[in-house]
């Protein structure tokens, strides 16, 4: 057996009640290098994590091996189901995927076909990420997924084309560069709630501090989804708001005008520099294990609060309930 002190492998290594602790955790979990780890290594990591939970890890296993297995497991497997996630939908793929798509949106914003194409690519990517990181205990039908995808893509295109048409003759070239950000922000407000609509309709499971399920709550779903929407907008905001100003300045110089084919690769790399920091920062804004006061349930969802009281018969009703907000 391992000679090091045992720890709870299902809990983060850093204090999640503080922003700095969550930031350290998400820098660790969203490490883009985990995207290129082989399937065999990921499966072995999951097996080692499961063995460690039972205290049956192979003799001589080191703490470093356990911690690395935990990192791979949390970056590649869904926290609710334990199923392996599609690599393109993992939060660890946000940096390489987001930098390529966002850089292209910022570069190719001048023509309507380019705007439509890159907004479609972006919303397809977002839909995959939202589905992959949903609260898996609230299943969504194929029809609902299709409606969410079409609605989010349409909202992004309408916003982008509307802003482009409105600003083309009324705004400076700098303001026109913000069309992609306006479209992405609008689409996030549509895509995520629709992709997770079952949570809003039926509620999500909420637990006491000992992880015992005690009821369901639609209010908890609203809180969790709202935080995810805000986090996603914050995630892309710096790259999509600062980089247009930088490019507007740089493109005035003769040397930049001579290397126009390199503008797109430059923007892709620049977006990557923003995202490598902003993905963990945005994920850290709110605790993953979100809380809700039971008095709020009593006020807004009396039927769910009554179910909670029945579940807690014989003991005090907890002050807070907890749930996974998703990412």
UniProtKB/TrEMBL annotation:
Keywords, in A-Z order:
Amino-acid transport, Membrane, Mitochondrion, Transmembrane, Transmembrane helix, Transport
The answer to whether the entry has keyword Signal is no
- Indicate where this protein resides in the cell: Mitochondrion membrane
What residue ranges are annotated as transmembrane? Answer: 266-286
Give the record's GO biological process terms. Answer: serine import into mitochondrion
- UniProt GO molecular function: monoatomic ion transmembrane transporter activity
Identify the Pfam families for this entry.
SFXNs
Homology family:
Belongs to the sideroflexin family.
Q: Which PANTHER family match?
A: SIDEROFLEXIN (PTHR11153), SIDEROFLEXIN-2 (PTHR11153:SF14)
Q: What is this protein called?
A: Sidoreflexin
Organism encoding this protein: Cryptotermes secundus
- What lineage does the source organism belong to? Eukaryota, Metazoa, Ecdysozoa, Arthropoda, Hexapoda
**What's the name of its gene?**
SFXN2_2
